[in-house]
């Protein structure tokens, strides 16, 4: 007697919204008595610290489906087992979630509020004795709030507002976006934290003009998103999640190198930090199509 499990869709990641379906295929060369066939689906989260010295496990879920005998036959009085003749027999099943890979998808709507950070870029005048102040208010905003979709560009807006009437040139000379991921694991009362870095985009010596010398006081100057909208978040990154003793969180770091002045130029580095939530997009029919080729 031979028993095999065939899945309808054998991709490596399932979400809590997916259904695991398929067939149990039974091949037997002689009649066999079978009382019941049950399919059980369960998921276990296990955390290990210090090379497995401290281990803690939790069962996340369990699903059970009786695929044989059929409901009507099971309710009939008589023998507790049924004879299945020789040959090939197929028993279909359908169950929700599976622990191949924890890949959470949460029902959410993109937040309306914008997550922003602001700082002041002061500019020293080249000549001695000048009392006219000059600065730029720098605003960096995430247009979808904390939510970032894997496989998509970062919805970023960068704006400079001029404070003062003096003339000045401003260039964006350096630009970098980077994700700082933190994995926290608990086991037997101990905590282990692992930090990793993923550079999304880095550019230097770009000399992108932001402000010319004729910009007026209060002028709002936006840096076009063409600098970063072709760079996508890697779809293979682990989404943000928290389950039992394990959590994955992220921070987005945006680094700007602004070169400013009139006759003497200096570069000022500004860094902005945002707590973000990485979320996978809706699953495609083939969720692992070659999107990696489109990332950069």
Automatic annotation (TrEMBL):
Q: Which CDD domains match?
A: ART10-like
GO biological process: any one?
Answer: protein transport
Q: Which residues form the Arrestin-like N-terminal domain?
A: 4-96
Organism's domain of life?
A: Eukaryota
Binding partners and assembly: Interacts with hulA.
UniProt-listed PANTHER family: ARRESTIN DOMAIN CONTAINING PROTEIN (PTHR11188), FI21816P1 (PTHR11188:SF17)
Annotated protein name in UniProt:
Arrestin-like N-terminal domain-containing protein
Origin organism of this chain?
Answer: Aspergillus bombycis
């Amino acid at each position: 007697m031979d028993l095999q499990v065939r899945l309808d869709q054998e991709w490596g990641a399932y979400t809590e919204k997916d259904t695991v379906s398929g067939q149990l295929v039974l091949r037997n060369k002689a009649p066999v008595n079978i009382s019941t066939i049950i399919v059980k689906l369960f998921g276990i989260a296990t955390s290990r610290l210090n090379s497995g010295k401290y281990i803690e496990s939790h069962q996340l879920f369990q699903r059970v489906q009786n695929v044989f005998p059929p409901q009507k036959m099971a309710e009939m009085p008589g023998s507790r087992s049924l004879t299945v003749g020789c040959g090939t027999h197929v028993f279909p099943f359908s169950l929700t979630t599976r622990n191949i890979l924890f890949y959470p998808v949460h029902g959410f709507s993109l937040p309306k509020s914008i997550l922003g950070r602001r700082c002041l870029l002061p500019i020293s005048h080249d000549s001695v004795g000048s009392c006219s102040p000059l600065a730029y208010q720098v605003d960096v905003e995430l247009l979808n709030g904390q939510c970032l979709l894997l496989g998509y560009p970062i919805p970023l807006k960068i704006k400079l507002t001029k404070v003062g009437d003096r003339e000045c040139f401003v260039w964006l000379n350096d630009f970098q976006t980077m994700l700082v991921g933190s994995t926290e694991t608990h086991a037997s009362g101990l905590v282990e934290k692992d930090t990793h870095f993923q550079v999304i985009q880095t550019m230097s010596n770009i000399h992108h003009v932001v402000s010319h010398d004729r910009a007026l006081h209060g002028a709002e100057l936006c840096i076009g998103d063409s600098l970063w909208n072709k760079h996508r978040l890697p779809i293979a990154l682990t989404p943000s999640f928290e389950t039992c003793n394990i959590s994955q969180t992220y921070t987005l770091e945006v680094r700007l190198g602004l070169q400013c002045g009139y006759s003497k130029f200096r570069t000022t580095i500004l860094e902005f930090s945002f707590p973000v939530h990485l979320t996978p997009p809706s699953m495609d029919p083939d969720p692992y199509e070659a999107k990696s080729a489109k990332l950069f």
